[in-house]
Give the backbone structure.
Amino acid sequence: MTVRTSGDSGTTLRIRVQPKSSSNRLIVDNAGHVRIAVTAPPADGAANRAVCVLIAKCLGLAKSNVCVKSGLRSRDKVIHVHGVGEDEAMRRLAAH
């Protein structure tokens, strides 16, 4: 999934998540799709929290700057990131 919108308050990312993976990792392919694998299970929001923590770490932001806007029970999620623009977010994510 790709970065879709940006604004003064931050950037919105569309991502695909794989819970219960063997390791935490973030992959940005050549088309700009962001895929995230987390070791946390999808129960009780653990995978959603792990996704926010991983994105915040990759972007160098506080985890409170990252939240799931939609897709709480889906593998496809929309994530809002405060404090970084679209170009900078993609640059930082691709560098990780």
Remarks:
- The beta strands are 3-7, 10-18, 25-28, 34-37, 66-70, 76-81.
- The two ends are 17 Å apart (CA to CA).
- The chain has a mean pLDDT of 90.
- The CA atoms of residues 24 and 54 lie 8 Å apart.
